[in-house]
Structure formats: C-alpha cells, structure tokens
Amino acid sequence: MVKQVNEQLESLHRTLKESPELDSETHDLLLKIADDIAKLEGNEAGSPELSDAVQEQVIRFEHEHPAISAILRQLTDTLGRIGV
Fold this sequence. Notes:
The chain has one domain (2-81). The radius of gyration is 12 Å and the shape is globular. It contains 4 helices and no strands. The model has no long low-confidence stretch (mean pLDDT 79). It is 74% helix and 0% strand. By secondary structure, the chain is mainly alpha-helical.
C-alpha cells in the first residue's frame, strides 16, 4: 500500500508542476496535503482531518482540474484502505 501511496504522491507532484494556473494558496495547500500523506508512511494512524481535507480538494477540483481531482480521489481511496 505504501508503494501505491508514494506513486500517487509522485503523480500529484508532477501534475502540480504542470499546472501553473493554480493560485499559490491552492498550490501550497495541495503540497501540504501531499506532505502530510507522505508523513503517514509507516504510521497507519492518520487523522480524520487529513482525509476530510483531501476529500474537500477532490470536490473543489472536479471541474477545473480533473487530473488533480482524479489523483486526489485515488489517494483518498488508498488511504481509506489502509485505515487513514
């Protein structure tokens, strides 16, 4: 599962680099979420706030940034499977 999360985080970082149309606040928030998820490696006890934050971004990006939304949805699903 950790490998899958890492691959999804790498994909998110690549997509963020290719999305200059994101405002800096949104970009920083997504990087913080990615960092928080990366810190969970080896620690299965995650916070409900993290899952909620990721889900909020999935909804927010659904129409304007479908690639980012898809990656975040995959991360949400993976985190849910590992109990985060």
